[in-house]
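user: At home tonight, take the chain set out below, taking as long as you need, and be ready to discuss the fold:
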Amino acid sequence: MSEMELTMEPSEEFLFQHKGIYFQPHFVTPEYIDSLEDFEIRDSDVFVVTYPKSGTVWTQNILSLIHHEGHRDGTENVQTVDRVPWLEYNIHNIDYVHRPSPRLFTTHLPYYLVPRDLRNRRAKVIYVARNPKDVVVSYFHFSSLSVLLETIPDFNIFLERFLAGKVLAGSWLDHVRGWYTHRDDFNILFLTYEEMKKDLRGTVLKICRFLGKQLNEKELDTVVENATFDKMKTDPRANYNSMEGNLLERGKGHFLRKGIVGDWKNTMTVAQSERFDNVFKEKMKDLSSTFTWDINDDI
């Protein structure tokens, strides 16, 4: 095996492969993932589905603010990771079965690994996609901070792993394609990170309509104010910096980094951008028109 082939393989200390994608061994087993097929879904359940670094924490926070008055007015000090916990990574061992409705969940799972009942259009799914060039750059920087991810100092190697799907949650291209092409199996709302940045208030209203939630103007203003990136970055409830032992970072930075559109241009070379374009256009040629961003431009 060549040196390049060796560097392309993820470390088993940080990732394991199961049913076509990669998971973190610290929090989940293959047996638990398999058990989710029979996880009982309620009609009132809401799932935030994302590929990593696509606005996950942002959407978790918005849902928390919409659903919980105590989160909006600051009277309850509950972390977002507990308000909208991970389906596949039950970090704090929450009793999901007896959790009161409406249950809010987050997942990076591909469409084919989510609970069977969810594929029968039961419950609601909010899928957030982001320009994949910004995703790979954000993912690269995050991997240097997280104690749960392998640090890969060479961006070119990370880019090749990303394009090959040899990273947490597998291939971005397959993840988005899978959820979009099987959208009729789900009660699903598609959003993009870029439209959230451009019109946060409009996005919050769209989510409220999808969920059937009525907020008055004051409540809506509070949600939007507390869902801004700068506000989230300083709110210990809204990001993972405050988790026990600061598990997610090596102390080199902040969980929420920049939160801007087009930051990939500060990292990618022209050659890397062209390499990405070639793979993207081949795999997404029949879907590219469905997203509001161009992979080479800011919104």
